[in-house]
Amino acid sequence: MSSFPTQEPSGIEAPVSRDDDLAVESAVQSRLGVWFDHHLYSLVASVGRLLSKPWAALLTIGVMAVALALPLGLWAALSNIERFAGEVQQSRQISLFLKPEIKLERARSLAEELRARPDIGAIELRTPEQGLADLREKSGLGDSLSAIEGNPLPSLLLVTPKGDELALAESLGSLAETDVVQHDAGWRQRLDGWLRFGIRLAWLLAAMLGLGALLVVGNTVRLDIQSRRDEIGVLQLLGATDGFIRRPFLYLGACYGLAAGAVALALLTAADRTLREPLTALATSYGSHFELQGFDLPQALAILAGAAALGWLGAGFVTGHYLRQNRSGQG
C-alpha cells in the first residue's frame, strides 16, 4: 500500500468542518462582545467623569439648559397663543342684522337656507325678544329700556364661517334681507402675521442658541481631551483606532446634552406651573376655559433625544478635529 495521503477527487470540495463554523461564530461573537463592552464602559466612564467634577458639570449643563429653554419656551408660548386664537369662536362670528321689517318666520327660513351652505359652519338665530333681554341684563339699563314702547331691535343671525371669513361676509352683505353685517377679521390677520413672525423668530433663536450649546459642549470636551492627552497618545501608540478613542468623549457629550435637556424641561415645567393658575383665572374672567398646555410625553422625549444628539455632535466635531491635528503632527 502507498504511504502518501490520498487526495480528494478532482472537482469535489472537501466538506467544511463543524469546528471551523464554531470557531468563526465564536470569533464574531467575541468581537461583538468586545464592541458592546467598550460602549458600555464608555457610557459608565462618561457618567463617572461628570460626577467627579460636579460643579464644572453643573455649570456646563446649566448654560446648555438655558440655551435650550429659551427657544423651546418661545415655541411653547406661540403654540398656546395659536391654540387660544383657534378656540375663540366668538371672534370669528359674523353678526348679520336683518332689516326691521323682516318677520321672525322669514328670519327662521333664512337661517335654514344659510345653514345648508358649505362655507358656513354654524348659524344661530337671536330673536328681537332675546336681544332685548340680553341688553337689559348686560347693560344695566333695565328701567330705561322698560320705558320704551315696543321692541326696536331686529332679528340677528350669528354665523360661524367654515372657510374664508371675508368672502362670506361680503356674500352675506349682498342678501336682500341684510341690513348690517358686523365683522372684524383685521385683528385675526394681524395675529396670524405676528404668529408667523414669532415662529420664524423661534427657529432663528433655536439655531443660534443651539450653536451656542454645541460650542459649550465642544469646549468642555476639548478641555477634557487636553487633560487626557498622554492617555490618548499611549492608546495611539498601541494601535487604537480613532473610533475607539473618540467613543468615550461622544458619550460624555451626549450625557451633557441629555442632562441639559432634562433641566430645560424642568425649567419650562416650573414656568408652566407658575403661570397656569393666574392665566386660567384671567381667561375665566372673560368667559373662556383656556388653559396652558405644556409638552406631552412624545415631545419631551424628542427634546431629550435632540439635546443628547446636540451634545454628541459637539463632542464628535472637537474630538475628530483633535485626532486629525494629532495625526498630522505625527506625520
Number of helical segments with 4 or more residues: 10
Average pLDDT number: 76
Largest sheet: 4 strands, antiparallel
Measured between the Cα atoms of the first and last residue, the distance is 64 Å
Topology:
Elements: H1 18-52, H2 54-87, E1 94-98, H3 104-115, E2 120-126, H4 128-139, H5 142-146, E3 156-161, H6 165-173, E4 178-182, H7 186-227, H8 229-237, H9 242-285, H10 297-330
Antiparallel strand pairs: 1-3, 1-4, 2-3
Helix pairs in contact: 1-9, 2-7, 2-9, 7-9, 7-10, 9-10
Transmembrane segments: 55-78, 201-221, 249-271, 300-323
Membrane topology: Multi-pass membrane protein
GO cellular component, one term: plasma membrane
Q: Could you explain the architecture of this structure?
A:
The protein is α+β, with helices and mostly antiparallel strands and 331 residues long. It is built from ten helices and four strands; from the N terminus they run H-H-E-H-E-H-H-E-H-E-H-H-H-H. The chain has a four-stranded antiparallel beta sheet with strand order 2-3-1-4. It is rod-shaped, with a radius of gyration of 36 Å. It holds the Pfam family FtsX. Keywords: Cell cycle, Cell division, Cell inner membrane, Cell membrane, Membrane, Transmembrane, Transmembrane helix. Forms a membrane-associated complex with FtsE.
